[in-house]
Amino acid sequence: MPQLNTTSTADISFMLLIFFLVTTSMDSDKGLRRQLSPRNVEEEVVATDVDRNTVLTVGITADNKYTYSLPEQQEPVECTDIELRKQLRTFIPRLGDKHIIEIQASRSACYDRYFHLQNIIVHVYRDELKRKYKQRISESYVP
Length: 143
Known about the structure:
Shape: elongated
Largest sheet: 5 strands, mixed
Distance between the termini: 75 Å
Number of helices: 3
Radius of gyration: 26 Å
Order of helices and strands: HEEEHEHE
Number of strands: 5
Helix content: 25-40%
């Protein structure tokens, strides 16, 4: 009865396994490229009063839509990416270094939309305003 010689099959399969492990790219973790200031334990944080006329509130609703609310507005207005960039480009130079951008995100909003919102704000500062103004972002979460 003729038989196949299978003594080298284990060697070949081991070599193929090593080949595929070496040539396959591994997924790397994705995250935010933001550097937070170091935490100073000895320093006590004192709450300060903020003039609401210097705050632009940007939000993400539960159905993942962007909103903004200017200081003179009572209700937030839904907007697109382009409209939000336009509002940021007009709001920031009008107040100079005294402006504050507050981010309010619904707990049921998608993380990708939140990261995309941060990227929009960074893009406006870095590319469109040529790093002229300092960025201060206050984050709060809406239940």
